[in-house]
């Protein structure tokens, strides 16, 4: 991704797409009862509130009435249908890690089988996106958290701490190649979750081999614990690798969330916020609801002079529903160099 003269001028940037992650599957309702919806009606209303505050993408997880994260696809279908009816323009992004929450007290957080995860391609009504992880990695979401971030919450309890600090993302080629094929066949966009430059490079190879033929829509996940660290050096290194035609959202955790998002806003990237990522204001004097976090980003973006995307804008920026017929078309649309032909060397950025 290149930054030329004028790249930081708002008139040369896309409208800001804000992704809201309001369901916080790692928390239990008592961790933040004011902002963790439990009933289906409350979960639908939370999506409406986020959209009205300025978020155009909803990162969706579902809770059962007992407050635990749901693993029932029927619950996902019900919530997707409710959100689609209430805010039809909002982009619905289902979190592919639908098993974040332990099933019972003291149970280790674990991911579902590949067969079950593939069933996300069969959700009805279908979501616009499903997040796709690439390459197996540690996912210690607590590693870069301060002890004050989790004090008094379920993550500070021994069972919760152990479960969420020992999570592993199982994503081998046999899983993610088949997964993107099934999602594409269903007309669902793969929203790639990149933890470092290596996971991006794997997806570029999928594109070059014709496994994935769609827009490169991605999150740079900077939470440590096996993912990138939230700093400008890692971000800049990642940006230098990705093509100009891609769409990148930046994501971090706790008090790193706001500064990383501010960098993203300034550079013309896109942002994510919500209680799944952060519970606090920057002084840790009070918890912030997802809606308050969205409103903060809207204010900051307007100060930069960058308009905020509505749902229709976001669908155009994300190229929802767009797929390509050939490898060559996919490479060109994403701003990638064509596959080399005999005798061709170098890092071409357009066809010779």
From TrEMBL:
Alphabetized UniProt keyword annotations: Metal-binding, Transferase, Zinc
Matching InterPro entries: Aldolase_TIM, BKACE
Cofactor(s) listed in the protein's UniProt record: Zn(2+)
Keyword Zinc: yes
GO molecular function list: 3-keto-5-aminohexanoate cleavage activity; metal ion binding
Protein name (database record): Transposase
Organism from which the protein derives: Piscinibacter gummiphilus
């Amino acid at each position: 991704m290149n930054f030329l003269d004028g790249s930081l001028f708002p008139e040369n940037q896309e409208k800001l797409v804000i992704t809201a992650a309001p369901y916080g599957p790692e928390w239990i309702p008592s961790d933040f009862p004011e902002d963790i919806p439990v009933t289906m009606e409350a979960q639908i209303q939370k999506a409406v509130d986020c959209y009205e505050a300025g978020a155009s993408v909803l990162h969706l997880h579902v809770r059962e009435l007992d407050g635990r994260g749901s693993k029932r696809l029927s619950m996902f279908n019900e919530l997707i249908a409710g959100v689609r009816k209430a805010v039809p323009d909002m982009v619905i992004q289902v979190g592919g890690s639908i098993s974040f929450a332990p099933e019972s007290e003291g149970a280790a957080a674990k991911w579902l089988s590949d067969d079950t995860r593939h069933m996300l391609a069969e959700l009805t009504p279908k979501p616009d996106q499903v997040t796709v992880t690439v390459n197996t990695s540690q996912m210690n979401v607590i590693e870069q958290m301060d002890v004050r971030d989790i004090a008094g919450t379920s993550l500070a309890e021994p069972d919760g701490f152990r479960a969420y600090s020992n999570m592993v993302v199982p994503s081998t080629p046999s899983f993610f190649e088949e997964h993107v094929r099934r999602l594409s066949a269903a007309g669902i966009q793969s929203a790639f979750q990149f933890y470092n430059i290596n996971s991006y490079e794997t997806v570029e190879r999928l594109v070059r081999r014709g496994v994935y033929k769609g827009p490169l829509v991605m999150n740079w996940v900077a939470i440590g614990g096996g993912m990138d660290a939230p700093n400008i050096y890692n971000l800049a290194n990642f940006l230098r690798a990705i093509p100009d035609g891609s769409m990148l959202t930046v994501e971090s955790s706790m008090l790193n969330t706001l500064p990383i998002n501010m960098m993203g806003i300034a550079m013309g990237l896109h942002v994510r916020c919500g209680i799944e990522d952060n519970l606090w204001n920057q002084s840790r004097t009070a918890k912030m609801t997802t809606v308050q976090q969205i409103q903060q980003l809207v204010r900051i973006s307007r100060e930069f002079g960058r308009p905020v995307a509505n749902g229709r804008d976001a669908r155009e920026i994300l190229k929802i529903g767009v797929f390509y017929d050939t490898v060559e078309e996919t490479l060109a649309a994403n701003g990638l160099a064509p596959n080399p032909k005999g005798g061709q060397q170098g890092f071409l950025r357009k066809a010779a």
